């Protein structure tokens, strides 16, 4: 956790209009960044989602052929709750995503097509909390996506994408333990909660706790007060400067 001794935390830049959120599975965005996305769409920004998989391996006892369409539908509903109406699935295999050149190419293609100024990614470190191993898919997708931002700006790495003009994002904002910047999401809690509740079937499969209780816990964890940032509720990001 960021210590108060580090001084004030900066605001995530908001002088942009187009954003792309890249995640491994349905639900990842709602666990971390839905409130921030809502804040930005309420400012009139255009946000799109790209998910590497449909989350088909995510519900115990429910076959992937049934789980994939269900989780896709839940993600589309969750996106709408925070003002996002463009959700793309790349159909990589849930639980078996590799940090490959193919994934980098597909993400670079998406970045060139959507031309985001801001790219939002999710914690791709080996651990997501002390002593808690991160998902292999999260690690693979996050690392590949950070590389794909540079790939999208280079005409010579994936020449098969030559039909799409190169594109250089301005920033990448990554959720997780190493936040350097934050956004005030105090007015976006209700929308973020609605987005989490859209994943009701998935949440119900996680254990005996009522879905509403679990959803409240998820939103509280994602929007707690941040040391050094003057907001009742905030979401923190590690900011990477891609270009000025």
From TrEMBL:
Zinc listed as a keyword: yes
Record has Transcription regulation as a keyword: no
InterPro entries named in the record: GlcNAc_PI_deacetylase-related (IPR003737), LmbE-like_dom_sf (IPR024078)
Transmembrane segments: none
GO MF term list: hydrolase activity, acting on carbon-nitrogen (but not peptide) bonds, in linear amides
Matching Pfam families: PIG-L
An example Gene Ontology biological process: glycoside metabolic process
Record key words, sorted: Zinc
Annotated protein name in UniProt: PIG-L family deacetylase
Organism: Nocardia macrotermitis
